[in-house]
Design a protein that fits this description.
The chain is of the alpha+beta class. About 45% of the residues lie in helices and about 10% in strands.
């Protein structure tokens, strides 16, 4: 099946603007038709946009659901004559008639409703006597539409929910990945001391000031998030102990920094996914695992089972957290206790110190673990999108485009919006947008002093930071060359001052 961009390439300009209007897409910034098509396609295939457009059309015309189900059962395409008998025709119009009649405002059939909202296209197939017209769903929109299992998710007795308002959604982002970059810069320039109880609290406080603060989480979750960050860094071989200090291991760090952002994101997720030493149950803030008796859980087996269950979710669909937990309890309640033993595990409720034994406490143990994984590691590591619903309702969740790929779905790679500008100002500050590579940010960390991490990364070039760089063999000329390459309109006065720093150092040394 064609992609959305291939479908749009056949449309006149007026239809491109009509589709943008119908789906709330923005294409005014495009300078060429090709850019407009790429920009529009990226917005039309966003999972949340597809889900919302589908739900709005189903609410307007319930037959839309039957039309989409017919196409999906036929692997995404149907002969137009057959489709038209069920759901009406799509009137063929040239640009002048489109402008005169604006059919997207007055669709005469379910087929036209879908067509002018960008969920179906029309194309020719075959040749000669076998030539015919088909109606199809673009290949990069199909994964985000409800598939024909009566809205039941394969493997779980679970129905999806209407998509939330965009204003309430918290899409998976790169905050944790950005924090990994921050940790590398911090360890390059600062000290992180170890004590018998773990990293020194004063050093941790200085590190935490630089991190991206997670959404709507309390201090307990933040502490676990920091512990997970350090654990993943250690799993990836970045850290080594030198006496009482944690230092960076050069080769693994350099290899990570040179990866693409998609590869870096996946490396962090896999480091958690495959760790036998990170115990999600015992890290759940509401719970305490007590070392008593002979009980022992298997965190790797539990995580594998949970990820398999989450892999049953349909990409792009939204689910109430409470409904998902009920479905898991009904389908596979013993996901972390293969023997069904609910009596000999010593687990306490943190708030009351009460031991939680018996299957009747499932929601307080297994439920608490699942709720923590949803708001915690699965969201931090970009596998889940979250949304706060209206008052009195539960959290909503959805597999992100990345999570869908990692958990086994044959989903298209997500379109990434890159904001990667580096700005050098007259006051010697360097500002980096969120899309700047971790490698370039690490380079800036080597010659500038950190100032802030949100909403943009800001660093200050000072005499002290340049001297620190020079002591490690990084010359002013090298720094100036990097800034010229990465910054648009770098101030000549600042660049010249950085280059002169080498001369002043030589004078002082002599």
């Amino acid at each position: 099946m064609p992609t959305t961009a291939q479908m749009l390439a056949e449309y006149p300009d007026i239809l491109l603007h009509a589709l943008a209007e119908m789906r709330g897409a923005l294409i005014e910034s495009a300078e060429t038709r090709e850019q407009a098509i790429d920009l529009l396609a990226a917005q039309l295939t966003d999972p949340t946009s597809v889900q919302m457009a589908y739900q709005e059309m189903v609410d307007y015309a319930p037959q839309v659901k039957d039309a989409i189900q017919m196409l999906l059962r036929a692997h995404g395409e149907v002969v137009e004559a057959q489709f038209s008998r069920e759901f009406g025709a799509i009137r063929q119009m040239g640009p002048a008639r489109l402008e005169r009649e604006t059919p997207w405002l007055y669709p005469e059939s379910v087929a036209e409703l879908l067509y002018y909202n960008g969920l179906i296209g029309r194309a020719f197939k075959g040749a000669g006597q076998h030539a015919h017209t088909i109606i199809y769903i673009p290949s990069d929109a199909a994964p985000w539409l409800p598939h024909p299992q009566s809205d039941l998710t394969t493997g779980l007795p679970l129905k999806s929910s209407p998509p939330p308002s965009p204003s309430r959604t918290l899409l998976a982002d790169d905050a944790f990945l950005q924090d990994a970059g921050t940790l590398l810069g911090f360890l390059y320039n600062e000290r992180l001391r170890l004590t018998s109880a773990g990293p020194h609290p004063e050093d941790v406080d200085r590190l935490v000031q630089r991190l991206q603060i997670p959404f709507n989480n309390g201090d307990a979750d933040l502490n676990v998030r920091l512990a997970l960050l350090l654990h993943v860094a250690n799993r990836l071989g970045w850290l080594r102990r030198e006496g009482e200090l944690i230092q960076l291991t050069q080769n693994p760090v350099a290899a990570f920094l040179e990866k693409t952002r998609a590869e870096q994101r996946r490396m962090l997720f896999d480091a958690w996914r495959n760790s036998p030493d990170w115990n999600d149950l015992c890290r759940t803030p509401e719970l305490e695992c007590v070392e008593a008796g002979l009980w022992q859980n298997d965190p790797l087996q539990t995580r594998s089972a949970i990820l398999r269950l989450f892999g049953c979710l349909q990409p792009g669909a939204w689910y109430l957290q409470s409904n998902l937990l009920e479905a898991i309890r009904a389908a596979e309640p013993d996901f972390q206790r293969p023997t069904g033993d609910y009596e000999t595990w010593y687990i306490r409720k943190s708030s009351t110190q009460e031991f939680l034994k018996g299957f009747e406490r499932w929601d307080e143990v297994e439920g608490a673990l699942l709720r923590f994984l949803i708001r915690g590691p699965l969201h931090w590591l970009a596998a889940l999108d979250l949304a706060e619903p209206g008052a009195g309702r539960d959290l909503l969740l959805s597999l992100s485009a990345w999570g869908a790929q990692w958990l086994g779905h044959d989903s298209p790679a997500p379109v990434e919006q890159v904001h990667n500008q580096v700005i050098l100002k007259e006051d010697f500050t360097v500002t980096l947008e969120s899309g700047v590579s971790l490698a370039d940010r690490f380079r800036v960390e080597r010659f500038a002093q950190w100032r802030q991490s949100y909403p943009l990364f800001v660093y200050q070039i000072t005499q002290r930071s340049l001297k620190r760089a020079a002591e490690r063999g990084i010359t002013g000329a090298r720094i100036a060359r990097f800034l010229r390459e990465r910054c648009r309109n770098a101030p000549p006065r600042v660049i010249a001052a950085i280059e002169r720093f080498d001369l002043s150092e030589k004078v002082q040394a002599s």
